[in-house]
Amino acid sequence: METISLKQRFLEDNLQYKEIKASTELTTIGQFQDIDEIEDEIWVLQCPKGYNIGENLKNQKLKLPGRTNFNSAEAVAVEYAEPETRAFGYCNRKGRYSLRLLPVKGSILLRDRLKAPEAVTLENAEALCPPESRVQFPDMIKV
Questions:
Q1: Domain residues of the chain, as ranges?
Q2: Residue 24 Cα distances to 27, 28, 54, angstroms
Q3: End-to-end CA distance of the chain
Q4: Which domain of life is it from (predicted)?
Q5: What is the SS3 assignment for 51?
Q6: How far apart are CA 91 and CA 94, in angstroms?
Q7: pLDDT by residue (tens digit) across 117-138?
Q8: pTM here?
Q9: 3-class DSSP state for residue 98?
């Protein structure tokens, strides 16, 4: 009788998921297992889907906690009142998957800024603002 791992059984039962092979794209910045909980602060960064972190965040400084604007994005960092413990999965030095519980200090929400339309000036106010008009009171309402 052939044995099937839990991972293989899960992938067979859930065809919408596929296994991600380890590559250089999946490596973390620095060594995840070398994080010192006493010396280092851990913040969770939430980015828009498809956001190029390497290109857009390179050489940028963030206010922790606080609000930072750069390029076409905005980062809002919020510090938790008490550090929350979160579980992080990573690939260890031996190539095996591991799980580590770490205290998270806060979260950073990264979002794209909307392009603001041109400001309203006296010259273009007539085109951008509706004319002042009175609204007729409905006949069916009794006061």
A1: 23-114
A2: 5, 9, 14
A3: 85
A4: Eukaryota
A5: coil
A6: 8
A7: 777 777 777 777 777 788 788 8
A8: 0.55
A9: strand
